[in-house]
């Protein structure tokens, strides 16, 4: 009797070209590095997600993009009255409204990105369970709309600089680097929070309190000079302290603590790397528990 290889029923009727290989995707155990090449291959999806968030932000709004101006303008007025007039907080020689708006812009950008990125995976749970793509794109895409808001609110800053007769100087070209530092900080915190929020929904209630506390731990309404010198190293472990101080110095020429900015930059990179590492560690469980 001839021995023949067992063939599944019906397969012998299919032509060779109709047989397609089956690809099995399995999660690798333990810690692993993020596949940035794969994320780059899906870059068009990143643009689509960012554009979607931007459309949703201003859809069916009466004032539209004017909200990007109203938020820092309102906060500037409040800070100028409470801290500038009533409390008499110094502003490093600059008019307090200009001092305040120069600190509010990078802070508002951070405060808009970090909580939104932290909740992004929970909000997009219906996508996670249907199709595969690099999950990291969801929290990263949340920086798109706040970045547009920042560009719009920068018009208010330009108007305030003109009102205070602060002209152009070369140090202002360094301002985008501090905005980039604020973005790295916001995305690092947001990516870490997004992974934690999927597993522990308590973080959805913790984050608003954390952002409020973080604002008063950053030099938004007061100069760094008010912080005692012996505690300044600890203060600059807050990455937003160096980003705000550097952004303000670049625009209006307030004193700058170079050592503090270097420490804050290092802290921002550490937070970003820790956020990415933890995200990669728990990413394979998102579809099961989201």
Descriptive overview:
Helix content is 64%, strand content 0%. The protein is mainly alpha-helical and 290 residues long. α2 (43-58) crosses α7 (144-163) and α8 packs parallel to α12. The N and C termini lie far apart (56 Å). Residues 1-9 have low confidence and may be disordered.
Key words describing this protein structure:
mainly alpha, 290 residues, disordered N terminus, 13 helices, 64% helix
Brief sketch in words of this structure:
It is built from 13 helices and no strands. α4 runs parallel beside α8, α8 (175-199) packs antiparallel against α11 (239-252) and α11 (239-252) packs across α12.
Principal-axis shape: globular
Instruction: List low-pLDDT spans.
Output: 1-9
Question: How many β-strand stretches?
Answer: 0
- N/C terminus separation: 56 Å
* Whole-angstrom Rg: 24 Å
Q: Note the total helix count.
A: 13
Strand-residue proportion: under 5%
Give the SSE order as H and E letters: HHHHHHHHHHHHH
- Oligomerization: single chain
**What would you call the structural class?**
mainly alpha
Instruction: Profile the largest sheet.
Output: none
Q: Let me know the average pLDDT.
A: 84
Helix content: 55-70%
Ordered list of secondary-structure elements with their pairings:
Layout: H1 36-41, H2 43-58, H3 67-86, H4 96-123, H5 125-128, H6 137-141, H7 144-163, H8 175-199, H9 203-216, H10 232-235, H11 239-252, H12 258-282, H13 286-289
